[in-house]
Amino acid sequence: MPTTAGDTGDRIEALLGQLPDGRGKQVAEELVRVVVGMYGEGLERIAGLVTEDVLLRLAGDDLVAGLLVLHDLHPVDVDTRIQRALDEVRPYLGSHAGGVEYLGVDADGTARLRLEGNCQGCPSSTLTVKMAIEGAITRAAPEVAGVEVEGVTPEPEPVPLQVGMGPPDGWHAPEPSGSRWSAVPEPGPPTGRPVAVRIDGVDVLLCSVRGTLYAYRDSCAACGSGLAESTLAGSVLTCAGCDARFDVRLAGKGLDDGGRHLDPLPLLSDSDGVRVALPAAVTS
User: Fold this and answer.
1) How deeply is 98 buried, as exposed, middle or buried, from its count of CB atoms within 10 A (0-12, 13-18, 19+)?
2) What is the SS3 string spanning 203-224?
3) What is the tens place of the pLDDT at every residue in 103-133?
4) 284: how many CB neighbours lie within 10 A of its CB?
């Protein structure tokens, strides 16, 4: 079941997209607009009646925060929310991110950042930025149009980490240093659970979140058990063995213990299909 306003919006759009063109679809779209407008007006009245402290506490809930953003009622400005999101993710980045400077949101609605220190120029920063930093900003400020980061050095060509962001026609992925690309089987339709597959002798966990596919080693960072029977609610993966929670959009960051995280694997979608980078020492 969707756990954020964004998830619900995506679901509504998908359902409307399945309707045939005609009067029925027009009525359904108008119904959605009326209901959204009614809830927006109700939220605006509530925001005007409660104290600022109460409104801030309400905004601490991801679902409520998404609704407040949707109706331009969030009590915290976008710059502050992005700064706070970066502060939360920095401890997880550790030595992989010597510094992340937030430059602001430009006129096109794109959040811009710059990597500093020992993170700048490091090939591994591509994975760090795309999965951890971008995920944190998108979650805290869903209204931004995108995230651009200066100082990211690809390895040695740009390698998309999200399915659907494919490279130009004719482009072929280079072999990642110390690893190789292996084909990923079709995970099937979303079921509310991750999909465990074995690829070239490696147990891989595939998680689909709002149309984006993420891959991890199939091992809980807390108890070491496999995660095939775990649940996936939005971006939160909960281990069936120990109830440990991880955010798959934040490079597998532990939500109960920030010192623990899943082991992410880069994904690539191009003319050869969907592939995952597995360590050469394992796949050989």
Assistant:
1) middle
2) EEEEEEECCEEEEEECCCCCCC
3) 888 888 898 887 765 544 444 445 555 567 7
4) 9
Give CA–CA dist 161/159, Å, rounded.
6
pLDDT exceeds cutoff 80 at 166? no
Residue 10, pLDDT score: 75
Q: Which residues pair with 276 in a beta bridge?
A: 182, 267
Q: 168 or 131: whose pLDDT is higher?
A: 131
| Runs of H (alpha helix) within 99-221 | 125-128, 134-140
Q: Tell me how far apart the alpha carbons of residues 70 and 77 are, in angstroms, rounded to a whole number.
A: 13
Q: What is the pLDDT of residues 143-157, one digit of tens each?
A: 888 888 776 555 444
Domains in the chain with CATH codes = 5-70 (no CATH), 78-150 (3.30.300.130), 179-283 (2.102.10.10)
Threshold 0.70, pTM exceeds: no
Q: 3-state DSSP call for residue 89?
A: helix
Answer whether residue 95 shows pLDDT above 70: no
User: What's the rounded Cα separation, in Å, for the pair 103 and 156?
Assistant: 26
CA 91 to chain centre: 18
**Distance in angstroms between the alpha carbons of the first and the last residue of the chain:** 40
In the structure encoding, which two tokens stand for residue 171, read together? 């482009």
d(CA 184, CA 197): 8
Q: Could you give the CA distance from residue 135 to residue 138 in angstroms, rounded to a whole number?
A: 5
C-alpha closest to that of 125 among 149, 91, 101: 149
Predicted pLDDT at 245? 92
Residue 122 vs residues 137, 167, 174, 245: alpha-carbon distances, Å: 21, 21, 17, 29
Between residues 74 and 99, the one the model is more confident about: 74
